Amino acid sequence: MDISIIGSGYVGLVTGACFADVGHNVICVDNDPRRIETLQAGKVPIYEPGLEEVIHRNVSAQRLRFTGSIQDGVENSQIVFIAVPTPQQPDGSVDLSFIEKVAREIAGVLTSYRVIVDKSTVPVKTGEKVRESIKRYNRHGAEFDVVSNPEFLREGCAVADLMRPDRIVIGAQSEHAIDLMKKVYEPFMAPILVTDINSAELIKHAANSFLALKISYINAVSAICEASGADVEKVADGIGMDRRIGRTFLNAGIGYGGSCFPKDIAAFITISEQLGVPFNLLKEVQRINADQKIRFLKSIREALWVLRDKKIAVWGLTFKPDTDDLRSSVAIELVSDMVKEGAHVTVYDPKGMAKAHEMEALAGAKFASSALEGVEGAEALVIATEWAEFANVDLAIVKEKMTTPIIFDGRNLFNPETMAKLGFHYYSIGRASVTPH
Ligand code: UGA
Question: How far apart are the CA of 96 and the centre of ligand 1, in A?
């Protein structure tokens, strides 16, 4: 199939690369000339495991190319995917101006039948608006169908998620569009669910909200574990072994972050209110999530007494491991809060340092070039992201380098008993704190 993808961010780029990898001809479009130049020069502007290799392989095979022109993309493809940002507005609603602009631009260059597919996360009923907009600006009166095809990939394992999806959701009205979409996804051999457009759009917000709910659920349980002396990891294992519940997304921590959950939950709340059926449960999900960081900070303050002038190392800045994405990362908020309280914070992240240097919120922090350099002379270590590099570090060396061996583990990376044996004061989430044996 000949496919174009408008928007070469995380979703657009990974989708384009993987479509090309299963044999489609793909044109990735972006309105940022710097991004297109970077991609044309063979460089990948984001860190995502395996992505660079897939891009290089398919550019060499001439199945993947990059352009700044929507016209080039639309003219040379049967199916046009929209994968542009849908950022959050201050009131929690979604800014759909990028989608609207792209719809108008597509309409302006549409000369014959195309399937226009929305892959960006959008509020229910956006497909209707896209259809109206394209109809209005469709100068040549060309035929088209609008399809909703939400994306479920996770950053950090996006290529694997896209190549082996749990399901493909196709929201469409026309049989012809459904057939073409099925051809696009045939090579992925995944179950396909065909729905109306509104349902497909809703599936995305409902899925992300449910996953966030699961995280907030276990985080709320972690608070009860701390108060009662139970162990949240054991509780998560015990409830997760019930196949109706499942163990995934039951990892207690400092709360969910990233470019999706915080924004999508806020959007879903706003949409439900606009529709007159407020989804108040999700407000509690948000509250628990915010509370998790506050509780963690409180435990740091309680243990260190005063933060002013304390030397604190922070490992992990990205919102999750295996990505360089710092957007809405709880780790960044933590660093910023501790710096505001007068702590001398040194940060280290395996992939996030380049972007971290540009962040205003980290202006008061020092940057280390390795995990071990970060803990040199530290009076406490805060673990904010569960990178494998941290799990594999030699803790004896860490202890030697620190002035006082106190660790606050916001991701339950280590076993408390082992930490006590190694001589650490160790605080984690939803588990009793331990002191050196
Ligand atoms: C999420 C969804 O998982 C994807 O299915 C979806 O396609 C994507 O949003 C999107 O809408 O584009 P992503 O935000 O990339 O993916 O990453 P997740 O793995 O879902 O993690 C989100 C946050 O939840 C992270 O901060 C992570 O640390 C946290 N988390 C996750 C927990 O605190 N506990 C868990 O058990 C799982």
Answer: 22
Q: What is the per-residue pLDDT for 96?
A: 97
Parse the chain into domains and list their residue ranges.
2-195, 204-285, 292-427
Distance (Å) from CA 81 to ligand 1 centroid: 23
CB-based pocket (< 6 A), ligand 1: 121, 151-155, 208, 211, 215, 249-251, 253, 256-258, 260-261, 319-320
Angle (deg, nearest 10), helices 281-304 and 197-228: 30
The tokens describing 210, both together, are 């449910």
| DSSP annotation of 89 | P
- Whether the domain at 2-195 and the domain at 292-427 fall into the same CATH topology: yes
CATH of 292-427, one of 3.40.50.300, 1.10.1040.10, 3.40.50.720, 3.40.50.2300: 3.40.50.720
End-to-end CA distance of the chain: 64
Short-list 76, 75, 82, 79, CA closest to 30: 82
Residue nearest to atom 20 of ligand 1 (CA): 154
CA of 213 relative to ligand 1 center, distance in Å:
11
The pLDDT tens digits for 336-353 are 999 999 999 999 999 999
As annotated, the active-site residues are 260
Tell me the best of 11, 151, 215 to mutate to test the pocket of ligand 1, counting ligand atoms within 8 Å of each CB and taking the most.
215
pLDDT score of 243: 98
Give 329 Cα–ligand 1 centroid separation in angstroms: 11
Q: Which amino acid makes up residue 16?
A: G
pLDDT over 70 percentage in the chain? 100
Residues 236-276: pLDDT tens digits? 999 999 999 999 999 999 999 999 999 999 999 999 999 99
What is the CATH number assigned to the segment(s) 2-195?
Answer: 3.40.50.720
The CATH homologous superfamily for domain 204-285 is N-(1-d-carboxylethyl)-l-norvaline Dehydrogenase; domain 2 (1.10.1040.10)
Torsion region of 82: left, alpha or beta (phi above 0 gives left; psi -120 to 50 gives alpha): beta
